[in-house]
């Protein structure tokens, strides 16, 4: 699992390292947040209405889910099953609470915390500015709180330089895959 504050560059680093690991596949999360320009349903997220998301919660279809800055996000068990059936190790990208929850359920799951300097986080979140400014303020506050949790995860990758951080992430994944551990819940 790759976790860390929003704006740390988790998604970018994952995209940089994925081509190096044919056996690893990203799990597509479900969310109730509005689709951003350029995002595709079923590729970046499964975009669900609040009612559909709630129905799946009640049916026990989520490995984990959270409320995050006014929207809901979750990992569907079916998504993990689908990737495993295809012979892939699922790579999950989660905010910190969800990552901790999966780790509590499965101690073999590996957690990698991606961090960045606070000024950089703020700059990226403002640049991403697709939410209202209110949501951005909340995202920045949440990101600062999440930075303090980094000691609770298996690895920390500092995303100060993209290429260096991608190499560090790839080295961790190599080590863990070779150790026969999985990058996600069993
Ligand atoms: P964004 O709205 O920027 O795409 O995502 C907001 C945050 O939610 C990010 O930190 C992202 O990693 C996290 N996130 C995305 N999918 C999931 C999920 O399935 N579960 C949890 N717990 N967090 C998620």
Distinctive features:
42% helix, alpha/beta, 186 residues, four-stranded mixed sheet, Rossmann fold, three-stranded parallel sheet, binds guanosine-5'-monophosphate, single chain
Architecture overview:
Strands 4-3-6-5 form a 4-stranded mixed β-sheet. With 186 residues, it is α/β, with parallel strands linked by helices. It has one domain (2-185): P-loop containing nucleotide triphosphate hydrolases (Rossmann fold, 3-Layer(aba) Sandwich). It has helices at residues 10-17, 50-58, 77-85, 96-105, 118-128, 133-147, 162-178; strands at residues 2-3, 24-26, 30-31, 46-47, 62-68, 71-76, 89-91, 112-115, 155-158. Guanosine-5'-monophosphate is lined by residues 6, 10, 29, 33, 64, 66, 68, 73-75, 93-95, 98.
CATH superfamily: P-loop containing nucleotide triphosphate hydrolases
How far is the N terminus from the C terminus? 12 Å
Rg (CA only): 16 Å
Strand arrangement within the widest β-sheet reads 4-3-6-5
- Reading the helices and strands in chain order gives EHEEEHEEHEHEHHEH
Summarize the structure.
With 186 residues, the chain is α/β, with parallel strands linked by helices. It contains 7 helices and 9 strands; from the N terminus they run E-H-E-E-E-H-E-E-H-E-H-E-H-H-E-H. The protein has one domain: 3-Layer(aba) Sandwich (Rossmann fold), CATH 3.40.50.300.
